[in-house]
Amino acid sequence: MIQSGTDLQAAKNLLEQGEVVGIPTETVYGLAGNALNPDAVLRIFKVKNRPAFDPLIVHTDSLAKVSQFVEAIPAPAKKLAETFWPGPLTLLLPKQAIIPDLVTSGLDTVAVRIPNHPLTLDLLRSLDFPLAAPSANPFGYISPTTAQHVADQLGDQIPYVLDGGACQIGLESTIIGFDEDHDPIVYRLGGMALESIEAVVGPLTVRSHSTSNPKAPGMLSSHYAPRKPLVLMPSHYAAVDPEMSEVGALAFQRPIENIPPDRQLILSPAGDLTEAAKNLFAYLRQLDQLDIDIIYAEKLPDEGLGRAINDRLRRAAVR
Ligand code: TXA
Ligand code: MG
């Protein structure tokens, strides 16, 4: 059975040997390997069953280290990094040759982030290489927000999961790139609300909706999906057929009428979008385990983290 715990030295040793290890972040758990070692990176793709065209995020612990593997940091990127790192924000920056093409799927930009988790920051500080890490779920399934989620799904394939408790944010990082004029473009909605980012760099262009040949395949139309079919309901009391006893629900604040209470999970009774984000993936997993045939999910307000939650629910609804 897989080992999990808080042994930083064990995680460090394994990573130095080219192994892959589960690591906690504030967003979701990552499946980490030495970003400068193509064999370790290949192992990540294999364990996740991830297509080679879907590039990885590189994690490190300081802007000084970032400068060692990117060509340049445009002024707006620097401003965002200084304001929000460590935090749930990933920046697409021109890569140096030291980053293997495998990491970026041949793109000339590399996705970079400094995660905000004390254990993982300690680990990154102790290593002399950055960590490539996608979310630690099988490709296409719901991202893990506890060490147990990682062990449940990848336990027989990886030697260790560093257990940092439940993820505080619960949604993958927001991904921002820059056009030729260095204007920021949002490629994936995520754990950093657009409102917060716009307060620093002004109005943002959002391009997280394309489905074919995606620049960020986290944007693939079907993704983050439970095994059971999921229906996204436009509003709270949309009609649910009372005959459908096999229906379960993911509600925002209050239970949905006509569905038995033991088949429902409430994301945030207080109506708090931050709390809803933190519960989202764990609750989807729980509903996926219930003896139901279909999951009804209530659409949340399109503001703050509600936007990213709705984005994940829309993708979970695509078959
Ligand atoms: O919060 C997160 O971002 C988590 C934690 C572990 O840091 N990681 C994560 O990784 O969500 P992953 O691999 O599941 O999603 C990374 C996304 C993918 O959709 C990928 O296509 C995109 O980042 N990406 C990576 N490099 C890119 C690049 N150079 N250009 C465009 N998109 C890129
Ligand atoms: Mg992922």
From TrEMBL:
It catalyses: L-threonine + hydrogencarbonate + ATP = L-threonylcarbamoyladenylate + diphosphate + H2O. It comes from the Bacteria. Keywords: ATP-binding, Cytoplasm, Nucleotide-binding, Nucleotidyltransferase, Transferase, tRNA processing. Pfam families: Sua5_C (PF03481), Sua5_yciO_yrdC (PF01300). The keyword Cytoplasm applies. Residues 5-192 form the YrdC-like domain. Required for the formation of a threonylcarbamoyl group on adenosine at position 37 (t(6)A37) in tRNAs that read codons beginning with adenine. Belongs to the SUA5 family. This is Threonylcarbamoyl-AMP synthase. The lineage of its organism: Bacteria, Pseudomonadati, Bacteroidota, Cytophagia, Cytophagales.
